[in-house]
Specification:
It is built from 13 helices and 19 strands. The chain is an alpha+beta fold. The protein is globular. The two termini are about 25 Å apart. Bound molecules: flavin-adenine dinucleotide (FAD).
C-alpha cells in the first residue's frame, strides 16, 4: 500500500475501510465537489460506472471510489485538491492507453481528462493549442484540411496527454522529431493545486522535465505546439512471406537507416490477418510487414521507398499517396479497447545482424495469432536534439522493438505473458534503455532504464520540488527523496 492509498476504499468484493461516520463525511465532501464542478463525478452504482472504471488494457479490472470527468482546469484543480487532502490513490488519464493500466485504480480517485478536447489552430503561425483529452486521430483529422500535422504516435485513439508527456515516437519521427520536440509550452496543475505554465522562458526546468518525465509533476491541461506540414504523404505497408524474415529485416534495417529523414518506417513480424488484402491461402501464415510514411515530394518518395517494396515478391502492397490522417487505418487493431495486452519494449544502439537473428529466432518460436513484434528504425530529426535538452534522453538510439501479445480476456494470460517475456529475455542482453510509453509495470529498475542516471537525478530534484508527497504516483514513477511529514487525511 502506498502512502497515498486512501482513507477511501471501494471494491464490491471487499468491506469498506470507512466507519459509518467517515463514510457520511466523505459522501458530504463528494457532494460538495460534485456541485462545484462543471464536469461530473461517476461513482459505484451510477449507470456509467462499469464503462468508466475500465481502461484500454483489459488486463486491468479496477474499482476506483470515484471518477471525476473534468471539463476545464478549475475542475482539475478541485479534483487534485480533493484527492490530495484525503490522501487518495490518484489516477490521471487522457486517452486511457497506459499499458500498465494506470488510468484506473482500486479505491482511489481517477481524474479523467477525456472531455478536455478543445483544439485551437493558428494556421499562419503554424501553432496549435491542444487539450490532453484529444486523441491523435482527432488532432490529425482536424489539422488535415489546413495541410498541417503534428508528429505523434502510430495509433489514432492514443491520447494527447499520455503520449506527449512520455516523448511521442510516430509516423514522422525522423522528419519532425519526437512530439515533445515541437512543444512550446505546457499548462499544468501541480500537486498543491496551483496552475503553472512551463516553457523555455517560464519554469524552464519544469519544461525540461515535462518533455519525457510523464505525469510525475502535475496534470497537463493544455499544450501549445509548433505544427509542421502534413498534407498528402506516401504511406502504407508492403507484406512479405516470412520464409526469409531474417534477410528481409536485415535489408530493411540497412535501407531504413540510410534513408532521408522524410522517410519513417516500422517493420513487424506476425501471422497474416484474415484481411481482404491478404490472399486467402496466405492468411494465418507468418509474414513480415514494412510500414512506411514518406513526407515530402511524392515522386521522390516513390524513388526512396521503392527498394523496401522489392525485398522479395510481396503478397500485398498497400503503399500509395494518401492524406496523412488516413495512415492510422493501418494500425486500427491498436484501437480496440478491452483486449488483454502484454507488452515489452527495448531500445538498441542500432540493429546489428546478431540482434535481428535473435529477434527472428525468438519470435518464430512463439508466433501465434496474438503475436505482433514491431521494429522501428529511428534517427533523423529525433537524434539531432541534444540528449540533455529534454527529459527524454535516448536520442542516439537507432532501434526500438515492441513485443506484444493481445487477445480476448478469455485467452490464457499466463501463456501470453510467457511468450512476450521469451522474446524480451532473448533481446535483453542487447538492449539499451527503454521508452516510457512502452513500459509495463516492470519495477523500479525498469523505470530507471527510461533515463540515463544524470537525467534521473535531475528528475528526482524536480519531483522533490513539485510533488514531494508523490501524489502523482501511478505512472512510471520518479520517487521523491525528500522526507515528508504527512498530515492526517482531511475527511470533509
Ligand atoms: C495501442 C498503443 C499504441 C501506441 N503507439 C505509440 C506510438 O506509436 N508512439 C508512442 O510514442 N507511444 C505509443 N504508445 C504509448 C503511449 O504513448 C502511452 O501508452 C501513453 O501513455 C498513452 O497516452 P494516453 O493519454 O492514451 O493514456 P493514459 O492512460 O490516459 O495516460 C497514461 C499516463 O500518462 C499520464 N497522463 C496522461 N494524461 C496526463 C495529463 N494530462 N497530465 C499528466 N499526466 C497525464 C498518467 O500518468 C497516465 O497514467 C502506444 C500505446 C498503445 C496502447
Amino acid at each position: 500500500m502506498t502512502q497515498h492509498q486512501a482513507a477511501i476504499q471501494y471494491n464490491p468484493n471487499e468491506q469498506s475501510t470507512l466507519s459509518p461516520q467517515e463514510q457520511q463525511t466523505y459522501e458530504q465532501a463528494m457532494e460538495k465537489l460534485t456541485s462545484n464542478l462543471r464536469g461530473d463525478v461517476i461513482q459505484p452504482g451510477d449507470a456509467a460506472y462499469e464503462a468508466e472504471r475500465k481502461v484500454w488494457n483489459g488486463l486491468f479490472d479496477r474499482y476506483p471510489a470515484a471518477i471525476v470527468r473534468c471539463v476545464d482546469t478549475e475542475d482539475v484543480t478541485a479534483a487534485v485538491n480533493f484527492a490530495r487532502d484525503r490522501k487518495m490513490t490518484l489516477s490521471v488519464r487522457s486517452g486511457g492507453h497506459s499499458i500498465p493500466g494506470y488510468g484506473s485504480n482500486d479505491g482511489g480517485l481517477t481524474i479523467d481528462l477525456s472531455n478536455l478536447k478543445t483544439i485551437t489552430i493558428d494556421p499562419v503561425r503554424r501553432t496549435a493549442r491542444l487539450e490532453p483529452g484529444l486523441s491523435w486521430g482527432e488532432v490529425a483529422n482536424t489539422l488535415q484540411p489546413f495541410g498541417l500535422a503534428m508528429t505523434a504516435g502510430d495509433v489514432a485513439s492514443v491520447g494527447v496527454g499520455g503520449l506527449l508527456l512520455g516523448g511521442g515516437i510516430g509516423w514522422m519521427v525522423r522528419a519532425y522529431g519526437l512530439t515533445i520536440d515541437r512543444v512550446r509550452s505546457v499548462e499544468l496543475v501541480t500537486a498543491d493545486g496551483q496552475m503553472v505554465r512551463a516553457s523555455a522562458d517560464e519554469n524552464p526546468e519544469l519544461f525540461w522535465g515535462l518533455r519525457g518525465g510523464g505525469g510525475n509533476f502535475g496534470i497537463a491541461t493544455a499544450f501549445e505546439v509548433n505544427l509542421h506540414p502534413g498534407g498528402t504523404i506516401l504511406g502504407g505497408a508492403v507484406f512479405y512471406e516470412a520464409t526469409e524474415a531474417e534477410r528481409i529485416l536485415k535489408e530493411y534495417a540497412r535501407l531504413a537507416a540510410a534513408a532521408p529523414d522524410e522517410l519513417s518506417t516500422e517493420a513487424m513480424l506476425a501471422l497474416a490477418p484474415p484481411a481482404p488484402f491478404i490472399p486467402p491461402d496466405k492468411q494465418g501464415t507468418p509474414i513480415v510487414g514494412i510500414l512506411v510514411c514518406y513526407t515530402g515530394d511524392l515522386s521522390e518518395g516513390e524513388r526512396v521507398v521503392a527498394p523496401l517494396r522489392q525485398l522479395a515478391t510481396p503478397i500485398a502492397d498497400l503503399i500509395a499517396p494518401m492524406p496523412y490522417s488516413n495512415i492510422f487505418a493501418l494500425t486500427e487493431i491498436g484501437e480496440v479497447r478491452g483486449l488483454q495486452h502484454h507488452g515489452r519494449s527495448l531500445f538498441f544502439e542500432m540493429f546489428s545482424d546478431e540482434i535481428l537473428h535473435t529477434l527472428v529466432e525468438a519470435t518464430q518460436s512463439v508466433l501465434s495469432p496474438e503475436t505482433m513484434v514491431s521494429l522501428r528504425v529511428l534517427g533523423g530529426a529525433m537524434s539531432r536534439v541534444a540528449p540533455d535538452a529534454t527529459a527524454f534522453a535516448h536520442r542516439d538510439k537507432q532501434g526500438m522493438v515492441l513485443i506484444t501479445h493481445f487477445a480476448p480476456l478469455s485467452a490464457d494470460a499466463a501463456s501470453l505473458a510467457a511468450r512476450t517475456q521469451h522474446v524480451f529475455q532473448a533481446l535483453l542482453p542487447y538492449g539499451s534503455g527503454v521508452y516510457a510509453g512502452f513500459v509495463a509495470d516492470e519495477g523500479e529498475q525498469r523505470v530507471r532504464d527510461i533515463y540515463p542516471p544524470a537525467t534521473y537525478d535531475r528528475l528526482v530534484a524536480l519531483k522533490n520540488h513539485y510533488d514531494p508527497t508523490n501524489l502523482f504516483g501511478l505512472n512510471q514513477n520518479i520517487k521523491p527523496t525528500v522526507p515528508v511529514t504527512l498530515a492526517a487525511p482531511v475527511s470533509s
